[in-house]
Design brief:
Elements (H helix, E strand, L loop, with lengths): L7 E4 L10 H9 L6 E6 L8 H7 L3 E5 L5 H8 L4 H13 L5 E6 L9 H6 L6 E6 L16 H7 L4 E2 L10 E4 L6 E5 L14 E2 L5 E2 L7
Parallel strand pairs: 1-2, 2-3, 3-4, 4-5, 5-8
Antiparallel strand pairs: 6-7, 7-8, 9-10
Length: about 220
């Protein structure tokens, strides 16, 4: 992949931090000529105590999946996860120099839609980007009635200011609250498709390639 021009690798899953050889994988990818950035998406449960080691291995940035800031709701959504561990891991990662850290939030009406303001508040004094992601149907489940679009968020938060994207081909439209350090990103695979700008390919755990999460090809 590096030989044909790919310079960024994302480790995702499932949960990549369950890999006992994760640090070895990161350092191995970092050693490949042409790879300039290694990013990992994690649920944050195993992040406490690991940020310095991840940085030393060569990890560039972190994305953390976080669908609620309320401990009991988070536990229910994740099937037993600890919000405290995620928040501890987040603060440790910021202290280790991971910035910006992206927080991926899938909004669902009737589940966590009442936390939008709380998530946006995280961007005020931290170098984090909260990314609100439209629910994307996978398999037989659609739940279109529960989907919250980016346009809905913009309509209810008119003080969000559009800002230039951080890099070409990114899926999010970026905004900022006046006076805030961080950003708010809107990723809308259903209402604002970004297929024409997509520059990604996925290598699955069985070695197969998937050009798109929305397709079984």
């Amino acid at each position: 992949f590096a030989r044909i021009g790919v310079n960024k690798v994302r480790l995702t899953g499932g949960e990549p931090m369950l890999r006992r050889d994760l640090l070895e994988i990161i350092s191995g990818i970092r050693a490949i000529d042409g790879i300039r950035e290694i990013v990992m998406t994690t649920n944050g449960q195993h992040l406490p105590g690991m940020s310095e080691r991840l940085k030393e291995a060569g990890l560039s940035r972190l994305n953390i999946s976080l669908d609620s800031l309320q401990p009991e709701r988070y536990k229910q959504i994740t099937g037993g996860g600890s919000l405290e561990r995620v928040r501890t891991g987040l603060e440790e990662a910021l202290a280790a120099g991971f910035a910006p850290i992206k927080l991926n939030v899938v909004l669902l009406r009737g589940v966590n839609h009442d936390e939008i303001d709380d998530f946006i508040a995280l961007t005020k004094d931290r170098p984090v980007q909260v990314r609100f992601i439209e629910y994307m149907p996978l398999g037989e489940s659609d739940r279109a009635d529960a989907r919250i679009t980016g346009d809905e968020i913009l309509a209810s938060h008119p003080t969000l200011i559009p800002v230039e994207p951080a890099y070409a081909g990114q899926p999010s439209r970026d905004y900022q609250m006046p006076g805030s350090i961080g950003r708010v990103g809107l990723i809308n695979p259903m209402s604002h498709r970004f297929c024409a700008d997509c520059n990604r390919v996925r290598v699955m755990s069985d070695g197969m390639l998937r050009p798109c999460l929305g397709s079984n090809e």
